[in-house]
From TrEMBL:
The keyword Signal applies. SUPFAM superfamilies: Sema domain. It comes from Scleropages formosus (Asian bonytongue). This is Sema domain-containing protein. GO terms for biological process: nervous system development. The lineage of its organism: Eukaryota, Metazoa, Chordata, Craniata, Vertebrata. Keywords: Glycoprotein, Signal. InterPro entries: Semap_dom (IPR001627), Semap_dom_sf (IPR036352), WD40/YVTN_repeat-like_dom_sf (IPR015943). Residues 19-82 form the Sema domain. It comes from the Eukaryota. Residues 1-18 form the signal peptide.
Length: 82
């Protein structure tokens, strides 16, 4: 009896996991189709955290070695580095 209940549970779990919603990006585009401005700093890697502060017009970018405060209007303009 216990194996029957376990089998039904595993079957339902498999059914839900294989027919669940697929991950679809909100927006996608080709790199050459848009005007992008890139930011990078020599010797800094693993940019992973972004925080947008619209009141101050800044974008905070966190990396493994530093935190940058960038202009929201032009990310190539570095306002501050910690």
């Amino acid at each position: 009896m216990a194996f029957g209940v376990l089998g039904v549970f595993l079957g339902l779990l498999l059914e839900v996991s294989t027919h669940g919603p697929t991950s679809v990006p909100r927006t996608s585009w080709k790199h050459q189709d848009v005007n992008l401005t890139e930011f990078s700093e020599p010797g800094i890697f693993n940019y992973s955290t972004l925080l947008l502060n619209e009141d101050k017009d800044v974008l905070y970018v966190g990396a493994r070695e530093a935190i940058f405060e960038l202009s929201m209007k032009n990310v190539s303009v570095k306002k501050n580095k910690v």
